[in-house]
Amino acid sequence: MIYLDYNATTPLDSRVFEAMAPYMKERWGNPSSPYSFGNEARIAVEKARRSVARQLGCKPPEVIFTSCGTEADNLAVRGVANALRHRGNHIVTTAVEHHAVLNTCRALENQGYRVSYVPVESDGAVRIGNVEKNLSPDTILITIMHANNETGVIQPVEEIAALARKRKIVFHTDAVQTAGKSLSPSCELGADLISFSAHKFYGPKGAGGLFVRQGTPLDPLLTGGPHERNLRAGTENVAAIVGLSEALALASESAGSESGRLQKLRDRFETRIKSAVPRVKINGASAPRVPNTSSLTFDSVDGESIVLGLDLRGIYVSTGSACSTGDPAPSHVLLAMGLSPKEAQGSIRISLGKHVREEDIDTVVQALTDTVTRLRGISSIETTRVPSS
Ligand code: PLP
Prior knowledge:
Aspartate Aminotransferase, domain 1, disordered C terminus, Aspartate Aminotransferase, domain 2
């Protein structure tokens, strides 16, 4: 098989698995237990927290472990909204956020908050002026992602952070697609809250985290015991936390060299597909992008059919976000960039990772060319058969 959907998830690194295994097999104590067996687990959690804090350049108590990126996003957005309700009810985000943020904002609108969805340009990036225009005295939170999961487009988060600081507004960034990669976020970005998720950087699924800058107002979503500085009650998933920290440490060792390699592969793919297939467009190509992602729109073909056609050849790509699979609606990200619903539906995403080789790219270009040509043939037959009315 050739797997080209690393933005959806990545395989677990075997070294990460080795680091996790003892906490599932032998050292399965509860970190909150008072005896030494529990303490072994507590030591592992706190060691993991120190290691993640080192990678993010922050203090260990500023790292809160969660069950996934979605939970980290929910904790950030709902947590600030609840904590600052007395100060205002306005939230600023963009039209291209992941559903973990977008649907959380929509749910908050139902609770009486006001949300502004800043538009993006046709290249997929927001302009800082448009963010600023949407701020008002009752704005309590700006939440804008670091890099988009569908297009790879990078948002100007350092500028947004500076603006938020100047206006004394809390700033959250969803860095699920950059953490553990070349653009791995650090607290130097200036954001007050940063979400990340282990399964995007060869760690386990069901492990995420949130950087919470000291002093940031935040209410918990889960109430119960005093875990995670009272911000996330529940017995810690020790093995998953150990796995997350190991994966992040390993990823940061190789991020620099790997990103150059992925960019070369991505560029090779885009150059070859553009010359092999007519009427194809690369979305977000003129904006800064993470090196592993390519979003392509093929004229007169359905993206879902391309994905299924490639699947038959053992090649795995997606139409967009994995969380939207099964949803027939066209991608909200591509629509926000000005694509028509038909164009958005003719789009696929490929996202590269560490097991992809140059020969895989060439195989995929050939398979994609064949698939699109065949589908265009069928669709033109169907079009001629449809009687005009
Ligand atoms: N945010 C972004 C940008 C993502 O790409 C994803 C997952 O695809 C998430 C949040 C959700 O992360 P998780 O799958 O860990 O819940």
